[in-house]
Amino acid sequence: VVKPKGRRPASGPEGPTNRRRPTGNQILKLLPRAAQEAIAPWLEEVELRQGESLFEPGDGVTHAYFPMNGTVVSLVLPMRDGRAVEAATIGREGAVGGIVSLGHKPAFARASVQIPGQAARISVNRLETAKRNAPRLHDILVRYADCLTAQVLQSVGCATVHPLEARCARWLLMTHDRLQQPEIPLTQEALAEMFGVARTYMTGIASALQRRGAISYRRGVIHIERRQMLEDAACECYRAVRGHFERVLPGLYPTVEL
Ligand SMILES: [Zn+2]
User: Fold this and answer.
1) How much distance in Å is there from the Cα of 166 to the middle of ligand 1?
2) pTM greater than 0.85 (yes/no)
């Protein structure tokens, strides 16, 4: 995968528009050369806007998205009362949409852009062809799907038995890993919404973390001040999921060194 040189996409008559080789996604980076060549011509670089929905429950999934460095997409479950709770956080270590299933399938969750940025996308039909031509691509995506399932399973347990502060610390660590920078551009309202709790409750949790110096919060941006404090405050779920990623797909999970 070659680092793109400019922001203006190149296009040609032989392939889709925006034909470039985007960088920063760990799945694409992990692919051997033959597999990269099978997928690269069909990757299209797109800008994802904050709050944008890539698909809604029931929608036919037409594209798979590979978030680039700093882009985070959440799989959320919209409820009838208007709340929408996060089930998985996907960034540069992963992909969203049509990853396991063959061809078009209805989406079960909403894919909502949490932190805006670039992503590479490919039509699910092209992805199927690329998987057939490059068994390693197929293997990596199957393994990634296992890791994503682990994340969702862990979140079920986490939401049931762990206190909000520990869950919040876990989420901040996961997002820090995916952004590779200490500033998380997210409002406390958005954070509260993601956990399905009242804003005042979330503000109390964020204030407690802030008083201890773990984070600070300025103008809609959460700053991670002391990661170690978040690691201490987080529940076991952070390490459990990260450990599974490291065993199933070594080199995929982007960690932030202290
Ligand atoms: Zn937990």
Assistant:
1) 7
2) yes
